[in-house]
Specification:
Structural class: alpha+beta
CATH topology of the domain at 48-188: Aminopeptidase
Largest sheet: 7 strands, mixed
CATH architecture of the domain at 48-188: 3-Layer(aba) Sandwich
Helix content: 25-40%
Low-confidence stretches: none
Number of helices: 7
Distance between the termini: 26 Å
Radius of gyration: 16 Å
Strand order of the largest sheet: 5-6-7-8-9-4-10
Strand content: 25-35%
Length: 208
C-alpha cells in the first residue's frame, strides 16, 4: 500500500484493492482510510481533522442532558445497528459512502476486534444515537455517527471522548473537518503532524 505522503492534492492515495480486515488494518496504521467501495479509494487528506482529547466543546444544553442521564450508554452492544443507522442518516446533498460492502467489511473488522461502536439508548430502550470507528493502538479513527433524537450524536461523541481518555488513547482522528465536528472542537493539523502523532499512538496498546 502506498505511503500517505504520496497523496494527490485532494488527498487520494490509491485506487483498488479489497476491503479486507488485513488491508483495513494496514491502511489505518499508515494514516489512510477508504471512502468508496466500487472502486475502493484510499485517502490521506492534508490538512487532517483531529479532536483534542481535552478540547471537546460541551454546550450548557448538552451538559444539562449529561447531568440528567435520561439515557443508557453501551459499547460494542449493537455495532451492526449503529453502522446501518449511520448509513441511513440524512446528509445534505450527499449520498452515503457507507454502502453494503462497507458495512460488511467493517462488521468483519468489528469481529476481529478493531472496529468499535458506542451506543446511546433512550428511556424507552430504543437506539437513539451512536458512533463507530477503528482503534489502532492508542489512535481512534472516528468514521461516522447518527442521531434519532436531538443531541444524541453529541452525547455519543462526549461519552466516546471520555472512554478514550479513560483507556489511555493519545489520538482521536476525525479525518475531515465538517461544521458539526468543528462546532464540537475538532481542529485541523498538517498531514505530517498527524502521521508523527499516529506513529507514536500506534506503538501503544490502549485497548478500547
Amino acid at each position: 500500500m502506498p505511503a500517505a505522503e504520496s497523496a494527490t492534492e485532494e488527498g487520494l492515495v490509491a485506487i483498488g484493492g479489497a476491503l479486507t480486515v488485513p488491508r483495513l488494518r494496514e491502511a489505518y496504521s499508515r494514516g489512510l482510510f477508504p471512502w468508496s467501495a466500487r472502486p475502493v479509494t484510499w485517502w490521506s487528506p492534508d490538512p487532517r481533522a483531529v479532536f483534542p482529547l481535552d478540547g471537546l466543546r460541551v454546550s450548557r444544553r448538552l451538559a444539562q442532558k449529561i447531568r440528567q442521564q435520561r439515557y443508557r450508554v453501551s459499547v460494542d452492544e449493537a455495532f451492526p445497528a449503529v453502522i446501518e443507522a449511520c448509513a441511513s442518516q440524512p446528509r445534505q446533498g450527499e449520498t452515503t459512502w457507507i454502502t453494503q460492502p462497507f458495512q460488511k467489511a467493517y462488521a468483519e473488522l468489528h469481529q476481529a476486534g478493531a472496529a468499535h461502536s458506542l451506543e446511546i439508548w433512550g428511556e424507552d430502550g430504543s437506539l437513539v444515537g451512536g458512533v463507530y470507528g477503528v482503534a489502532t493502538g492508542a489512535c481512534f479513527s472516528g468514521e461516522s455517527m447518527f442521531h434519532r433524537r436531538p443531541d444524541a450524536s453529541k452525547l455519543a461523541l462526549y461519552h466516546l471522548v471520555e472512554r478514550l481518555r479513560e483507556k489511555g488513547f493519545q489520538l482521536f482522528d476525525a479525518q475531515v473537518l465538517n461544521p458539526f465536528t468543528e462546532q464540537m472542537g475538532a481542529v485541523e493539523i498538517s498531514r505530517s503532524q498527524f502521521l508523527a502523532l499516529l506513529r507514536r499512538a500506534i506503538a501503544v496498546d490502549a485497548g478500547f
